[in-house]
Amino acid sequence: MAEDVRPRASWDEYFMSIAQVVATRSTCPRKYVGAVLVRNRTILSTGYNGSIRGMPHCSDVGHMMEDGHCVATIHAEANAIIQAARNGVMIEGATNYVTASPCWNCFKQLANSGVTRICFGEFYRDERIFEIAKQIGIELTHVPLPGVTLPKLPNQGPG
Ligand SMILES: [Zn+2]
Ligand SMILES: [Zn+2]
After folding, report:
1. Which ligand has the shortest distance to the CA of 75?
2. Distance (Å) from CA 71 to ligand 1 centroid
3. Ligand 2 centre from 151 Cα, in Å?
4. pLDDT tens digits, the chain, 159 residues: what are they?
5. Which residues have their alpha-adjacent CB atom under 5 A from ion ligand 1?
6. Nearest-5° angle of CA 23, CA 148, CA 33?
7. Residue 59, exposed/middle/buried by CB under 10 A (0-12, 13-18, 19+)?
8. Active-site residue flag, 77
């Protein structure tokens, strides 16, 4: 029997892999993003890019474009914060794993929700976050995307 010699995933790789799986639930095909809030190696909440609750998905009805961006969705990081709030979970001092670096709005929300570390998979578009993170003491770290792909599952029905 051949031994499985894969190195054990680091905690950062582990949670970033989970963020990649979370991203597969995104409903705006312009950008699939997943976010996971973690403290003490425990997942507090997750979020992905998606429409307002009860509203149709971009993938079904098209985007709501404004200045070259789709504004129909709530971003992954914001949805992770919202999911924690809905469940009464404290996220002060948490780490946010997100597959794409936060946009300016999400960065502001993460900062004020007490997140102290942000790990992003790929650079998205806002350069300001690097300077401001330094100023306010948020650790902003690049964690390369582990490249998780989900096998094509049989039809799962609506949901
Ligand atoms: Zn969209
Ligand atoms: Zn955002």
Report:
1. 2
2. 7
3. 28
4. 567 777 888 999 999 999 999 999 999 888 899 999 999 999 999 999 999 999 999 989 999 999 988 999 999 999 999 999 999 999 999 999 999 999 999 999 999 999 999 999 999 989 999 999 999 999 999 999 988 877 766 665 555
5. 28, 58, 63, 70, 72
6. 20
7. middle
8. yes
